[in-house]
Structure formats: C-alpha cells, structure tokens
Amino acid sequence: MDRKGSSRKRKATSTSAAASRQPQPDPATASTSGVSLSVPSSSVVNPQVRITTMPFASYVVWNNKGGTGKTTLTFQLAAEYAKRHHGKTIVVIDMCPQANVSSALLAKSNSPLNPGPVDLEGKRYVKTVCGYLLAKLERVSTEPGKTKLMNFLLKVNSTNKNIPTNVFLMCGDLYLEELSRRLEQERQLMAIGDNSPWKRVTLFIKDYVERLSQKGDFVFHRYKSFLFHLHRNGHKCCRRPNSTVHTADDFSLSAIKAMLYLVYGIQTDENDHRRSLVEHQFYQLAEAHQVNRPQLHLFVNNRVTYHTETAAAFVGIADEVKQLLNTVYEKESGIFSQEQDHLCPDLHDFHSAGVISLHTGIPISKLKQGKYRVFDKEVQVQKNINIYKADIGKIIEML
C-alpha cells in the first residue's frame, strides 16, 4: 500500500548513519533526560537491511498490558479504514485468547462465536486462528492454489451489517492459550539441517499473511493482546509497522520498555536482570534464525482526558514516553517507520461511546447522538461523538 505524504514515508536509516548526525555518545550507552539506553554489541538492526515495498500493508496493535484499548482501536481502525478504502480487502487476525475484537466485529458481545468448520485434506478444523495454527502444526499445505486460504476468514458484513463489506476476520479462539503451549513445544524441537522448528512455528501467521496477499490487495490489522508465551514472542516477525497503545500510567511505560528489550534488545534500565537470560530472549533468537522484526509506527496515547486542555497527569506520562522514544530514536532510528515528531498521537477517552460501540458492533463513525441499550441499561451518546470520529480519522491518516 502506498503511504500518504513523503513526510511520513518509511525510514530505513542505518544505525551508523543515525549516529553520525548526533554528537557521538558512548558506543554502548546513551542518556537523555535521565533515561539510560543500552544496546547489544551486535547492532539490533542490521545496517544493511532494506525495507522493500510489499503488495500489502500489515499493522500490529499491541501492548502486553491489559486495558489499554487494543480491542477498541483495532475495531475502529479496521472499520474506518475499510470505509475509506473500498478497493482494498481488510483482514483482521484476532490473536487475543478472549477473542474480544471478534465479538465486537461480529456484534456477539452476549452470545458465543460459532464461525463454522474448514475442511482441508480430509480433516476438519474450526474456522478460527486456532484452526489455522493446528492445521499448520499437522503439516496441512497452505500453498496458494492447493488451499483456499479465504476459507479461514469470515466476511464480517454477513453477520454485522454495520461493518463495510470489505472486512474479513480470522476469528479469535478461547482455546488459543492452551494451543500456544503445544506450539511452543514444537518450536523447541531440535533443528535438522536447515529445517528450524523455531522459525517455522514463529512464522505461521506471517506465512498466512504473505500467501493470502498474493491473491489481491490486502491490508492486515492484527490485534495482539500477547498474554501468553508463543504469541507474545512468536508472531511479531514481519517487517511491518507495529502500533503500540498505551494509557496514562507507569505500567504502560514499563510495558513499552519491556517490548523494546524483548523484540529489539534495547535495555532502558541500568540493572536489568534479563541480561542473564539473553540467550533465551526473542531478539537473540530472531537474529539467530534470521527472522525480521516489525518496525514501530505509532505509540497511541489512549484515553486522554481533556477539560479546556489535556489533564496534567496525562501530559506527565506522555512526556516520559516521548523522552524514552526520543532516546531510542537517536540511537536506533531504523526500528521506526514513522517520523520522530509523529510517533505519539493522542486519542480522547471515548467514554460511554466506546462501550456502546463495542457492545453493539457499531463503529464510532456510525454512532449518532442518542440513547442505546447496553444489556438492561439505556446509555446516552453525547454530542461530543464528533471529536472521537475525528480522532480515529487522524490515526487512519497516519497509516
């Protein structure tokens, strides 16, 4: 997908080039506003790596902390992006073990998900992310032409008429966490020659995305809650933008630091005990198995409270996140796909409108001022709904 505006195009600046534009720091550490940064002696991002244009775009909505708004943002972005791009097929892959975004898209907040079966090579699988992953474990072919990969997807509009017709869903599954243990066992098998079980299993979802994209113009929104080992470590593995959602608390800041270390090996705390486990860290395994990692596109400051201006507590946390990211950007600009000044957009707290939107399956862009029923309660959508619509539009323009 072509990006809008040359000012926001992807950057593939090498580590050495980034350093040459700054006063030369110590090669192992850099410090800005009290933030200490340490990177491995071998560069986190290969200076020779090139970012190539692919026939599809893929965005990961991520935070390993709960309650930051991943479900809300994925739901709203997928619906609004599809509305604005009728000629593209939007695919949402729900990697949450609670299947939250699937329930929202299908408007099934109070009923079970029944996506149906998929028959492949004489075997029957459930039409969910678990069904696909189990088929991959059992060595079922996913080569285009041999397998109808669209069979694993639901056309969302068939169930929820409020969603555009070009949105498809690989449904989440409540058994995903249990399956992750089986997948992790497979990853730990001994490699034979060039056959690496770790790499094979780690790239299951990337494999699906790339093979499906060969059939048309696709945009993938992958929702990740990352509550369990395999999907926390295993599927952030394509050279695609990753959008991190955070809220105004110290725990979101810790989650961002953990992600920077886990995926890129960037240590932001001086006494980080994880260094003693370095050989088990994802960034080391990814380098050893030549697995690309995603670029960081946006850090959405979600649920920002306004009165006449942004509340002071939100400003404090947002400034700390920006200081951290500025420090990392100066040292490792190649891991970002967005200009430094555009990394941290704010998103208003949607309040009751957000709850109503997810409960009813009606995107914010379609909500109108008035009363809606949430279970046995009547809930009012206020006139400030247009502010929320503008916020979603602003994020869409940055994709």
Provide the gyration radius in Å: 21 Å
Content of β-strand: 15-25%
Main β-sheet, spatial strand arrangement: 7-8-4-9-3-10-11-12
CATH class: Alpha Beta
Taking all residues together, what is the mean pLDDT?
78
What CATH calls the topology is Rossmann fold
> Distance between termini?
10 Å
Helix fraction bin: 25-40%
Structural class assignment: alpha/beta
Region (Disordered): 1-41
Organism: Mytilus coruscus
Domain AAA: 61-180
Biased composition (Low complexity): 31-41
Task: Give a structural overview.
The chain has 399 residues and is an alpha/beta fold. The model is unreliable at 1-36, 41-54 and 226-239 (pLDDT under 50). A hairpin with a 2-residue loop joins strand 1 (29-32) and strand 2 (35-38). The chain has 13 helices and 14 strands. Strands 7-8-4-9-3-10-11-12 form an eight-stranded mixed β-sheet, with helices on both faces. Helix 2 crosses helix 13 (385-397) and helix 4 (129-137) runs parallel beside helix 5 (176-187). Residues 1-12 have a biased composition (Basic residues).
